[in-house]
Amino acid sequence: MKGWPAFLLLLCTVVMLVPGLAAxxxxxxxxxxxxxxxxxxxxxxAEALLSLTPVRxxxxxxQEDSGHRITIRYPGGDYGDAWAHELRNWLVALGIPSAQVLxxxxxxxxxxxxxxxxxxxx
Length: 122
Prior knowledge:
The chain is of the alpha+beta class. The chain is built from four helices and four strands, in the order αβααβαββ.
């Protein structure tokens, strides 16, 4: 326990001397919205997807050249996995580069997907 204050002082000094070290790799969330299973259109078309407020708002805020990326957090299981891949495919069809759409399990609910727009430091 004696070495902790010295270690913390050293760590704080390193963080202060290296610009951006504390925030490096931590994206800022610009947009976060859930899409519930009940909101997901039965017949998916570009028009049906664009009628979803979260999708429309996400596309309005997204800027490819600003270090933006989209994360889709989805429920576990085969259904959640298929749902996330389908939404990702639709976003790509609507103009989002596939490399900027990440899929992560763990939406926090069995019947919802979370859409996040994040700004990364590039």
